[in-house]
Amino acid sequence: MTKATTLGGSTLGAALATGVARRDTPAAAAADTNIAPPADTTDAVITARTDSYFNRTKQIVQRFGDARVTYAVFLRRPVVSAPRIALDWLRAVAAARAVELQIDLVHEEGTWVGAGDPLLYVTGSLIALSDLETLLLQKLGAACVAAHNAYQMCLELPAVAFLAMEARHCAGAEMQEMMAYAAAIGSRAAQAEGAKGFIGNANDATAHWFGQKHGYGTMPHALIGYAGTTVRAAEMFRETYPDEPLTVLVDYFGREVSDGLAVAERFPDLAAEGKLAMRLDTHGGRFLEGLDPAESYAVLERHAPSAIRRYRSETELRHLVGTGVSAAAVWKMREELDAAGFPRVRIVASSGFGVGKCRVMAEAKAPIDLVGTGSFIPDAWAETYATADIVEYDGAPRVKVGREFLLRRGEARRKNGGAA
């Protein structure tokens, strides 16, 4: 169902579905006349950052007369609707320019959108809208694709919690905000279908998207190198943060099993209470301690034989029995912990957990408690390109040939440009 909302000095209102808690954004603050709008809503910045032909179009229309137009915005691949950052920005621009824009949000935030299906329609003055397309699309496409990736990942492993660790892979703060938002939206969509989804993220600045006040995390490899041993790094963390659960990286010295058991033996109370976790982040150039190709197959033969008894691509085989954090590696770690009397020690897995790897882990029934990942960031960036086309001029349906599918449903589809 389409929801129409007027954007101007008023609130954004029904143009955004509920699902992820709103926050006090710079865009929202722009409605307060005592607060300056964000920098990229000023005419000077928009003119500098948009494509030149949009600026020239604006100047031509100013000379020959304005028109009321409707833009259709879409992507060429299936996505999950994640329009909030784009629409917050559009609202701020409308307020700064003192113009009214009508938004028809065809697909509510967090809902599935088919390839080529208009995600939203924007109606208003061509003079006011013509130079906004470039920046609007920048804030929409990647978020929708990343939300779809996060949604799929969570559904592949519905019983596993996820932690968003995308920040280090982002090209600056704007992308970091967008990707965290996208993960939260995709997660919420998956949670509606019964998945645990993303419980938080790894930094404070974007934790609000996950309903948290701060990011989660215990130690990087740098701390273990500084401490000299994995056990000593765990001790240092525990002494500094005595009231927090403990997650320990165990791959630094290539002794995931030995160091993991040593940490569990050092902190038996935490292990027994379920407050101790081992994070596997084994480098892709080697096997987890105690594994080789033959033993990796043997481990899965014991726990998930069906996973290795059908045709697999090279990538799938690597995820199952290869180097790095494979399904066999996770099962091996679980075997060793259980055999040593630590059944409540949890396993955190990271390193390349995109949709495909999550699917393979699910098929191997890998005993993962939490996945740390930023791999919802789109891999093929060309798939993130959102597109906008004007489909109405002063109420008359008109769009370039080949894009008739963007016209509003009904009579307008058959009368593009006035043709019968």
Task: Name its key features.
420 residues, alpha/beta, 6-stranded antiparallel β-sheet, 6-stranded parallel β-sheet, 17 helices, elongated
Task: Please write out the topology.
Elements: E1 3-7, H1 26-29, H2 43-49, H3 52-64, E2 68-74, E3 79-80, H4 84-97, E4 101-105, E5 112-113, E6 120-125, H5 126-129, H6 133-138, H7 141-156, E7 161-164, H8 173-191, E8 197-201, H9 221-227, H10 230-240, E9 246-249, H11 256-266, H12 268-273, E10 276-280, H13 293-303, H14 314-321, H15 327-339, E11 346-350, H16 355-363, E12 370-373, E13 387-393, E14 396-397, H17 411-414
Parallel strand pairs: 7-8, 7-12, 9-10, 10-11, 11-12
Antiparallel strand pairs: 1-4, 2-6, 2-13, 3-5, 4-6, 13-14
Helix pairs in contact: 7-8, 7-16, 9-10, 11-15, 13-15
